[in-house]
Specification:
The chain is of the alpha/beta class. It contains 18 helices and 11 strands.
Length: 433
């Protein structure tokens, strides 16, 4: 288990990943207290050891104020938003009482609050009061918006709310490229709203919020990266980030960005893009795995276990609790519901049977045959990844291979089956036949 584990939800160039991590580091320094430091030590000790139980509480919170959105991006967090209304959770807004009680309970250990989910937070005016409620409890607050329905007259209100980090989802540097993914959005209105917020900061003499333009790299827009960099300077944002989203298998061929060696200036000056979140494979070993290079040695890889089940918690607008932002469409995926728990009740839930089981899944201690399909973790690529790499002939660190073979003793036979038949137990997760 890695002592340092900074696995991001998306992949991007090296410099982009450092930009993301720097914002978390800023929150940690700005909001650290002795109690929070002690809590982090307890959490990280449990994570490094791969323990079922955690002596501390989550210190990164994600709370969905609403899942209502004005845009219809082809594969946002829920991939198919129609399922939310037809068969799933439904659309709505979190009740203010639920929000305040959750923040009051978790504020003593929380360093950062990501106050957004699969909706547009600034659709409703109460978001400014909600930001202030958490900021007054010494929590760094982040929201992610598309800003295409934001009102410029609210720019000063946003700046004065106590918001620490504003992520703006704008995936193009022209109306043509922007509109392919930001469906129903308004490119020029988004640009003007970013300008209004940056101007309000300057007018009020404020350094925060840190305005962060998030640009998802796709095959149709990556040629505009140099143009977007120049636009970001003109607008006055603090940073622009180019990242690779997690593209569903059915969309990969159309949407996936070209690799760095296929488009020379895609990430010029920002470094290489890693293979996948939490997976470390050298460029040479990636080429060997793709059959583009011949080597006598098996390609090497390393995999970091998911840290969400230790550090974080996601609360849907209706109070449904998930370990991360995956699986929000169906309420049946919830691990529980936030109902104004006492500290004792929350502790019993946080270290209860479900969370303990899922931490074992995350740490590769549960055979794939026994992963409970009722939980989204069983359908996530992360707990499957080292088994997949092993089956495909990758050499993993000795301790990791030892753990995998202890979990699935017949793994060498499964590797041979993959060589002969190209069939894996993880086929449903990765979309194989």
């Amino acid at each position: 288990m890695k002592v340092l584990n900074f696995v991001l939800a998306t992949t991007g160039p090296t410099l982009t990943n450092l930009k993301i991590l720097s914002r978390y580091a800023f929150s940690a320094v700005r909001h650290m207290t002795p109690r929070r430091l002690s809590n982090i030590v307890k959490v990280e000790w449990a994570r490094v050891r791969g323990n079922e139980r955690v002596g501390g509480w989550p210190y990164i919170l994600k709370v969905e104020s609403t899942n209502v959105c004005n845009q219809r991006c082809p594969f946002c967090l829920d991939r198919d938003r129609s399922k939310i209304d037809d068969d799933g959770r439904g659309f709505g807004r979190m009740h203010e009482d639920c929000y305040k009680k959750a923040i009051d309970l978790l504020a003593p250990t929380a360093l950062r609050l990501n106050l957004y989910g699969s909706g547009e937070p600034v659709l409703y005016d109460d978001i400014y009061d909600w930001i202030r409620f958490a900021a007054d409890r010494n929590i760094g607050v982040t929201i992610s918006c598309n800003l295409s329905v934001f009102k410029p007259e609210n720019a000063e209100r946003l700046v004065l709310s106590g918001l620490e980090h504003l992520i703006v989802s704008c995936h193009g540097a022209s109306p043509e490229t922007y509109s392919k993914y930001n469906v129903n959005g308004d490119f020029w209105r988004t640009i003007e709203n970013m300008k209004a917020i940056c101007a309000a900061k300057k007018r009020l003499g404020k350094r925060l919020p840190f305005v962060d333009w998030q640009f998802l790299r796709f095959s149709h827009n990556q040629h505009e990266i140099p143009k977007a960099r120049e636009m970001a300077k003109d607008i006055g944002v603090n940073a622009i980030r180019f990242i690779n989203p997690n593209i569903p298998p059915e969309h990969k061929e159309e949407w996936r960005p070209r690799r760095d060696d296929e488009l020379q200036d895609a990430n010029r000056g920002e470094g290489k893009v890693q293979a996948s979140p939490g997976v470390k494979i050298s460029a040479g070993d990636q080429a060997a795995a793709r059959g583009e290079a011949v080597t006598a040695k098996a390609p090497k890889a390393d995999v970091q276990a998911c840290s969400w089940l230790y550090r974080s918690m996601f609360i849907n607008w209706d109070g449904g609790i998930l370990p991360c932002c995956d699986g929000t469409t169906e309420p049946t995926n919830d691990l529980g519901t936030f109902t104004s728990q006492t500290p004792e009740e929350f502790e019993a839930f946080w270290n209860g049977p479900t969370y303990r089981y899922l931490r074992n899944v995350a740490n590769f201690k549960v055979p794939r045959e026994k992963m409970d399909p009722a939980f989204t973790c069983s359908h996530c690529i992360k707990p499957h990844m080292p088994y997949l790499l092993y089956e495909r002939g990758f050499q993993l660190p000795a301790k990791l291979e030892q753990r995998l073979r202890a979990t699935e003793p017949d793994l060498p036979e499964k590797r041979q089956r993959w060589r002969d038949e190209k069939v894996s137990l993880s086929s449903k997760v990765v979309g194989e036949r």
